[in-house]
Design a protein that fits this description.
single chain; alpha/beta; eight-stranded mixed β-sheet; five-stranded mixed β-sheet; 24 strands; globular; binds fe (ii) ion
Length: 600
């Protein structure tokens, strides 16, 4: 059976193709359209999936959309009417947005793909999240917790899943919390208040939190009240997201926390104002963690199950995930590589396969590499056309050469095989560097990633040696498989892992098994032979504001525009010569100076 899953029209559109119960391709539209966070109907992603499966649309047995548009419309309409007359400004816009494209998905899908309307199915948003989390995890019975901003009505769902080998699958949502009461919206409100882009900047709030103290946690708890049944409600006097699209927090919120941050002003942690913002981030982070840990603990007691699958955008909060693992009583916590809405494309296709059609259970390969494959020959071609020196090596030599480059302090763009599905670079579209010095971190932020100082980088380490450098609790290595947890760096290694150790002594470590990315694993071993530590800094291969690179030509374009020294794609290696590198750095310095003088 051939099933296409689609998520679209909110943020991070994506498509996924499942054939005979197993994914064959899953890709986010932004990676192909090159527009970050692209929310358009994912025609390019669909084309890529069908091309990968060698299918024409008419060969599909079903096309599944990741939520129920009419239920979502019902929520938007109900909230607008409840908030009237305050919502009168936002009302026409909300209706136009909803009625324009989003409600009539069956017809849109049918006309885009030329498939009959009867083949178009819908799942509920949190069913898609739950399926993406549970059906891709190597577990047969697990409790499930999904949390995000909002789907149709649900903002958090609790349930359990069961898979019988070669037989039936069940995913039962036991209960849910409904809009406007939402942990995701609480966090996003602080994201907006702290001057970051909602749905994109949440991880910046998490990073900023470790520079602050949760001194305003009691104030945040005034915004979210726990209820006797273990759920929570938001005090809506502090919010406006449910009545207007213009601002998510109310004037009462500002009275409580002070003036919001101007997004154009940098955060200066040396000033009282900068520290207030860091404390705000730390406070909302603490309350989010406490709430989810408590709910997970109750779920553990209620189900008696040792495994927990976490889904929804909130599961991208790695600090919270690690606390859930260590404090809730669950022995294993699984977070898929794409827990957010993009992952719902895969989730809804798997849900339809197992639950709607009742197809037998199948093991889903335990890796994130479902995107298009990189072509090293394409890199060789563009480098040659551009007059750039390049070489093509066999694997053993290429890995030794790259390990030498890294040991010499060079920054390497590393493209290998199929692209990651989900927001994290897990070794196929990564920028790699030596993890030892703070100077390397600063260089990457300044010359390559062009981003805020407080943003930490992540390490990657072979799973067998991870415990030597990082304090991983039981189950920690599993959570670190897709970089979903933050764990302490052992104190004795912090100074030698300065580029990947966050200010609070932690790291968002990726533990790598050889089978998942054999070439990166070999590179870690080769680097370990040279440096004595098989640990590398691994950050996503993109510059600020751009999506992860997909094709070799995009990797090459990024390589040429930033201070990266070496680019490897497949068997091809390109090295920037010293004079080019110096010129590039000079150009970057001039443009920064020009920006500085025009701003001043
Ligand atoms: Fe979601």
């Amino acid at each position: 059976m051939k099933i296409l899953g689609i998520s679209a029209h909110y943020h991070d559109s994506a498509a996924a193709l499942v054939i005979d119960g197993v994914p064959v391709c899953a890709v986010q539209e932004e990676r192909l359209s090159r527009s970050k966070g692209d929310s358009a109907f994912p025609l390019l992603a669909i084309e890529s999936c069908l091309g990968h499966g060698g299918l024409e649309p008419e060969e599909l047995d079903a096309v599944v959309f990741y939520e129920r548009p009419m239920l979502k419309f019902d929520r938007i309409l109900t909230c607008a009417l409840r908030a009237f007359p305050r919502s009168w400004r936002a009302f026409p816009k909300a209706m136009k947005n909803s009625l324009g494209e989003k409600v009539w998905m069956r017809g849109i899908i049918s006309s885009h793909l030329g498939v009959p309307g009867r083949k178009v199915l819908f799942t509920e948003h949190h069913q898609s999240h739950a399926a993406a989390a549970f059906l891709t995890a190597p577990t047969r019975r697990a409790a499930i917790l999904t949390a995000d901003g909002v789907g149709e009505w649900a903002t958090l769902a609790i349930g359990r899943g069961e898979r019988h080998a070669g037989g039936a699958t069940t995913i039962d949502i036991i209960r849910e919390i409904r809009f406007p009461h939402s942990l995701g919206m609480l966090y996003s409100t602080f994201t907006a208040y702290l001057g970051f882009a909602v749905n994109e900047g949440e991880y910046k709030v998490m990073g900023l939190a470790s520079y602050g103290r949760p001194s305003m946690a009691d104030e945040v708890r005034r915004l979210i009240r726990r209820t006797p049944d273990g759920a929570f409600t938001l005090d809506l006097d502090y919010f406006e997201f449910h009545t207007t699209a213009e601002r998510s927090y109310s004037s009462r919120f500002v009275e409580l926390f002070g003036p919001p941050r101007n997004p154009y002003e940098p955060i200066d942690l040396e000033t009282a104002e900068g520290r207030r913002f860091a404390d705000c981030a730390a406070s909302v982070q603490r309350v989010l963690e406490d709430t989810l840990v408590d709910m997970a603990r109750s779920l553990r007691q209620e189900t008696g199950l040792p495994d927990l699958c976490l889904g929804g955008g909130v599961a991208l909060n790695c600090v919270t995930n690690a606390r859930i693992l260590t404090e809730s009583g669950f022995e294993r916590v699984f977070v898929p590589p794409a827990p957010g809405d993009a992952g719902c494309a895969l989730g809804c296709a798997l849900y339809a396969d197992r639950i709607h059609f009742g197809n037998p259970d199948r093991e889903v390969p335990d890796h994130p590499f479902w995107g298009p494959a990189v072509n090293g020959r394409e890199l060789a071609h563009v480098a040659r056309e551009d007059g750039q020196p390049m070489d093509e090596f066999e694997d053993g030599f290429l890995i030794d050469q790259t390990a030498d480059d890294l040991a010499a302090g060079l920054v390497v763009g590393w493209m290998d095989g199929a692209m990651e599905f989900g927001p994290r670079a897990l070794g196929h579209r990564s920028i790699l560097a030596a993890p030892h010095s703070a100077g390397m971190r600063d260089r990457l932020n300044r010359d390559i990633k062009y981003r805020e100082e407080f943003r930490p980088f992540a390490p990657v380490v072979p799973i067998e040696t991870a415990g030597r450098y990082f304090d991983l609790p039981p189950g920690g290595a599993r959570l670190a498989r897709f970089m979903s947890g933050v764990f302490p760096v052992k104190p004795e290694w912090r100074s030698r892992l300065a580029a990947v150790t966050h200010v609070d002594g932690t790291a968002r470590v990726q533990t790598l098994e050889r089978d998942m990315a054999p070439r990166l694993y070999a590179l870690l071993e080769a680097y370990g032979q040279r440096s004595g530590m098989p640990v590398l800094l691994n950050t996503s291969f993109n510059v600020a504001g751009e999506p992860l690179v997909n094709r070799a030509v995009e990797g090459y374009s990024t390589f040429r525009r930033c201070g990266m020294d070496v680019l490897v794609a497949g068997q091809t290696r390109v090295r920037k010569c010293a004079s080019q590198q110096a010129r590039l750095q000079e150009e970057a310095r001039c443009s920064r100076n020009a920006e500085g003088s025009s701003a001043g």
